[in-house]
Write a structure and sequence with these properties.
By secondary structure, the protein is mostly beta strands. The protein is built from 1 helix and 7 strands; from the N terminus they run E-E-E-E-E-E-E-H.
């Protein structure tokens, strides 16, 4: 998963083995830690958090790039129904972690 990737709204990001570096609107970089990944309806999703361990804010990113594109285009999932469905999937995948 290494390489430079595009990230909607903030430009580019870099994927490492267990984290994704997102470029902020100000031009800085912010690390998000990949907790889990899944696929739903042909789309890839990442569950990310702002801390490598312990309690932190968790968010879901969706890869909106076309299959033929070499680079991913990640966007924040904001739709409540989509978040609820993905929340159940990630909760099943991570049954030992309490997701709220």
């Amino acid at each position: 998963m290494a390489g430079v990737q595009r990230w909607s709204g903030c430009g580019r990001c870099v994927l490492e083995e267990n984290k994704i570096w997102l470029e902020t609107p100000e031009g800085g970089q912010e690390a998000w830690y990949i907790v889990e990944q899944t696929k739903l309806g042909g789309k890839d999703y990442l569950l990310v958090t702002d801390r490598p361990e312990g309690d932190g804010e968790a968010y879901i990113l969706r890869d909106d790039s076309a299959p033929e594109e070499e680079q991913a285009l990640y966007t924040w999932v904001e739709d409540e129904a989509e978040l609820e469905a993905l929340g159940r999937i990630f909760a099943d995948l991570l049954e030992d972690i309490d997701l709220e």
